[in-house]
């Protein structure tokens, strides 16, 4: 997968593009459909204000959130996508700095680790995984997140919940 990453203020300086690429590789190890070389995803590290505007416009929710995912492919289409052919847009992800930083501080984890977790979460949403419909779905998605984060040497963010 090709990842087109843009980092905007107020994100601090750092290798956010490298973190995103490394995280995408880890996710592809546990969700091989995301390793398809034809896939392209945009990832925006931005502000709470920008994510709030996107959430209001596209989701009808008038508040910021930590991560938004906008899938462009249905899961069945993703799974059927061959390795040869033109590029395919998997979707877009946006991370809100202030919310991410606050959550990382509350959890006592580095911002980079929490951002990696949210990138994993966003990519899994783009691949058609969800956690809203049922506890079974939520637990399955959490197991995938934990497995991907383990590849990055990041501790289980859910503790003993799964």
TrEMBL record:
What is the UniProt remark on how the cofactor binds and its stoichiometry? Binds 1 zinc ion.
The UniProt keyword set, sorted, is: Cytoplasm, Endonuclease, Hydrolase, Metal-binding, Nuclease, Ribosome biogenesis, rRNA processing, Zinc
Q: Where does Zn(2+) bind?
A: 121, 125, 131
| Required cofactor(s) | Zn(2+)
PROSITE patterns membership: UPF0054
**Where is this protein found?**
Cytoplasm
TM spans, by residue? Answer: none
Task: Fetch the Gene3D superfamilies from UniProt.
Answer: Metalloproteases ('zincins'), catalytic domain
Q: Which segment of the chain is annotated as a signal peptide?
A: none
> E.C. number, please?
3.1.-.-
Q: Which family does it belong to?
A: Belongs to the endoribonuclease YbeY family.
Instruction: List, alphabetically, the Pfam families matched.
Output: YbeY (PF02130)
Supply the name of the protein. Endoribonuclease YbeY
Keyword check for Transmembrane helix: no
Recorded hits in PANTHER family, A to Z, give: ENDORIBONUCLEASE YBEY, CHLOROPLASTIC (PTHR46986)
Cited function: Single strand-specific metallo-endoribonuclease involved in late-stage 70S ribosome quality control and in maturation of the 3' terminus of the 16S rRNA.
Q: Which gene encodes it?
A: ybeY
Cited InterPro entries: MetalPrtase_cat_dom_sf_prd, YbeY, YbeY_CS
